[in-house]
Amino acid sequence: MKLPTIRRLRGTLIRLTLARRISTSIGAVLVFLTVVLSLADFKWESWLTDGFALFTGALGAALLVVGFSGRRADWVDPSRIED
Question: What is the pTM of this model?
Answer without folding.
Answer: 0.74
